[in-house]
Amino acid sequence: MIIAGEVSGDIHGASLIRELKELDSSLEIFGIGGDLMKDAGMKINYHINRMAFLGFVEVLKHIPFIKKVRNDLLEIIKEKNIKSVVLIDYPGFNLSIAKKIKRLGVKIIYYISPQVWAWGSDRINKIKNLVTKMLVVFSFEEELYNQAGVNVEFVGHPLLERIKNYNFLTKDELWKKFELDKSKEVLLILPGSRNQEVEKIFPETIAAAEKIAAEFNLQIVTACSSNIDEKLLTRISGSVNNKIVKGYTYDFLKYSKIGIVKSGTSTLEAALFELPMVIVYKTSYLTYLIGKNLIKVDNIGMANIIAGENVVPELIQDKADSISIYNECKKILSDGLLYQMIKNKLGKIKEKLGTEGASKRAAKAIYAIVNET
To answer: How far apart are CA 252 and CA 12, in angstroms?
Structure first.
C-alpha cells in the first residue's frame, strides 16, 4: 500500500511505482493517490482530490470522513494481507494511520519525511517508534534521524530526475502555443493545489501582479494545478488580463522573469530553475495562530530553508497583501544586481539535493524491505 494525499505526493508516488514495477511487475499496489499514480499502475482506493484538507480547522470539519478513510484502508490491509506500507509526506493523516498500521504488524516505510525540523523533536520520537525505515530527500534530514537513532537513508530529491526527464518546449514554441506577447516577459503565479489555498492567496496575488505587469511591461501567466478548476482562477482574476495554463508549469518556470509562488514544493521547483520569486502563504486565522506556536523555524519557503538564508522574500498571513507583494516584486525587478544575486544563490540549492535517481534508490530500498522474511 502507498498513501499520498497531495499533488506533489502523487507526482513522486507515480515515479516510485514505475520503479517498483520495473523491479517486479507482479507487484499489486493499493492506497491513496491521484491520476498519475493510477496511470503508473496503482489501484486507487481514495483519490487525493478527496483528501485536500488544509489546516487544523478544515481537518476538524472532516473528521468523520477521515476516520472512514482510515478504517477502509486498514480493512484493505487485512483483506489483501498487505505486509508493507509506504507513506509519502502528508503527515497529519499518515502519522495518525501509522499507529494503527503498526499494530497490525505491518512494515512502514516513510518516503519524503514530514518536516520534523520545523515541528520539533516530538515528531522524530513518534516516527522512531512507528517506521521500519525513513527515506529522506534532504541530506540534513539524514543527520537529524541518525542522531535520533532512526533507520534512515538519504536517496536524493525526485525533483532532479523529474526536471531532467522533462520534455521542454522552446520559448518560441511556448509563447506561440499560448498566444503570448513576444515583446513581453512573463510574471508567473503559482497559487497552490488546494481550493482553500487559492481562495485565500490568489485574490491578493493577482491584484499585485496586475500592477507589477503594467509597471514593468510583463504579461501574467497563472499555472493552474491539475486538481484545481480553472473557473475558480478565472472568477477571482475578474477583468485582469491573465493567461491560465494547465500542464506546462516547468516550461514557464524555465522562461519566466519573476514568480509569485505559494509556499510549498513549488518554491523548491522555482529555485531549481533559478527563478527570482516572492513566496506567499495565507490560511485561516486560527490555523495560522496554532501553527505559529508549533513551528520552530524562521522560514517556511523550502527554497530559503535549503539555502539556509533569506534568499527570496516571504510574505505570510497578514503580510501577504497585494501592496506588500507588489513592493517585494518591484524591489527585485528594479535592482539588476539584486536580481542576479538571487539567481546565483538559488543556483546553489541544486547542489544540496543529491544526485538524480531518487525514485530508483527509494524503490530498491522499499523492495528490499518488502522481500525481507
So the answer is: 20
Would you give the distance in Å from CA 285 to the centre of its chain? 22
List of domains in the chain: 2-156+357-370 (3.40.50.2000), 171-353 (3.40.50.2000)
Check: CB of residue 23 under 8 Å from CB of residue 62. no
Helix locations, 245-284, DSSP H: 249-255, 265-272
Q: Is 238 exposed, middle or buried (0-12, 13-18, 19+ CB in 10 A)?
A: exposed
Over the chain (373 residues), what is each successive 10-residue block's mean pLDDT?
Answer: 93 97 96 97 95 64 89 97 95 92 96 77 84 94 92 96 96 98 97 87 96 98 92 94 96 98 92 97 63 58 88 90 97 98 95 92 97 77
3-class secondary structure, 321: coil
CA 260 and chain centroid, separation: 15
Cβ-Cβ contacts under 8 Å for 103 (sequence gap 6 or more): none
Does residue 261 contact residue 267 with C-beta atoms inside 8 Å? yes
* C-alpha cell recorded at residue 199: 481562495
Q: How far is CA 19 from the centre of its chain?
A: 20
Please name the residues in contact with 145: beta carbons below 8 A apart, sequence gap of 6 or more.
113, 124, 127, 134, 136, 152
- pTM of the predicted model, to two decimals? 0.85
